[in-house]
Amino acid sequence: MIKGRNVLVALFAAMSFVLISCGSTPEPDDSAETSEELVDETQGALWSKVEESRKAAIDAGAETASPQAFKAAEEAYNALKKESAGKSEDEQAESLRELDSRYQALKAYAEAAEKKARIDELNFSSYNRAAYKEGSDLMDELQNSEDYGPEWNKKALAANEKLGAVLTAAYKSLSQEERTEAFKAKRQADSIKCAVSRKAEYDKYVSNFKAGDQNYVTGNPEGALNNYTKAKEGFTALYSEVSEARRKAQEAIDEAKRRVSESESTAQWADKEKPLGNEPVEGIEAEGTTLLEADNFADAEAAEVEVDEILDVTILEAN
After folding, report:
1. CA of 32: how far to CAs of 38, 45, 88, 90, in Å?
2. Where do the DSSP E strands lie in 130-197?
3. What's the mean pLDDT in 5-26?
4. C-alpha distances out from residue 202 to 12, 53, 213, 224, 269, Å
5. Helix, strand, or coil here: 1?
6. Distance in angstroms (rounded) separating the CA atoms of residues 235 and 195
7. Rounded CA separation 67/73 (Å)
């Protein structure tokens, strides 16, 4: 009996051990695999960013604008592609971020060089002399530097910003002046009812004028200048062409009146010398005949499009 009880106790202990062992078996840990996936995804995103910035720098002309700085960046780029496997995750990420910054700076430098060339060509430096000097000085420093580290990057971005401010100031001033001239040209066109006689073209130039306002308020003063110039030239051409057509029409009216007057004098003389009765005479128009169709400007006021003489930026921003 005691022996049987011992067997039962031993069997129960064995079963308990098995149950406890099964219950304490750890679940599979997927955290390591997930972590690796996140690392790969991050590295891929950083490489994509570098490739994007590199392409933008090349498209901006960085290889020509600063050959040595671009060459140094390319060497770092190729080296990182080869050595990335031997670096830690943090080291790879840091290297990629640094490389991305270098390509962004190269793009900024190329843009700054192009802006400076345009400023010099158009004599725009006077529109913001302080910014022009700061930008030009930074460009000189960058050209003479062989250290293409973070400081070079910072200066390239600053130079691009300063020279961009010069162009913005110039185009803002010029576009404001051109807007005034475009408004005057429109007012001239309105004075001879171009909105009626040449409506399609008139509406096109009004659209140019309004597009200029929109360009200006959205921070594109160069685009504004181009549109105001189109409007000014268009309205000026309309005024000139319609004025010439009206002049010729008036000459035709005057000439017709002169001929009628001469014909009446001739008819009166002929009537006395050789009466013809009521038969029509060649070359003499019947009384009441319309010699030239008159312009109909009944809808002129409705056809004209109003624009503000002064550009109100706050109104455009609200719309």
Report:
1. 10, 20, 16, 17
2. none
3. 46
4. 103, 45, 17, 18, 51
5. coil
6. 10
7. 10
Does residue 228 contact residue 182 with C-beta atoms inside 8 Å?
Answer: yes
| H/E stretch holding 95 | helix 89-122
* Maximum Cα–Cα distance across the chain: 173
Q: Is 158 exposed, middle or buried (0-12, 13-18, 19+ CB in 10 A)?
A: middle
Q: Say how far apart CA 135 and CA 164 lie, in whole Å.
A: 9
Amino acid at 107: K
The interaxial angle of helices 89-122 and 150-191, nearest 10 deg, is: 40
pLDDT in tens, 256-273: 888 887 776 666 665 666
Question: How much is the pLDDT for 14?
Answer: 47
Residue keyed to tokens 């304490």:
24
Are 100 and 56 spatial neighbours (Cβ–Cβ below 8 Å)? no
Q: Is the dihedral of CA 240, 242, 245, 250 positive or negative?
A: negative
pLDDT above 80 for 286: no
| Residue 109: DSSP 8-state | H
From the list 302, 273, 34, 91, the residue with the least C-alpha distance to 190 is 302
Task: Identify the residue whose tokens are 């009944």.
Answer: 298
Angle between helices 150-191 and 221-273 (to 10 degrees): 20
Tokens of 45: 């995103």
- At which residue do the structure tokens 């185009």 appear? 171
Alpha carbon distance 120, 135 (integer Å): 12
Residue pLDDT, tens place only, 154-200: 999 999 999 999 999 999 999 999 999 999 999 999 999 999 999 99
Tell me what pLDDT residue 18 has: 42
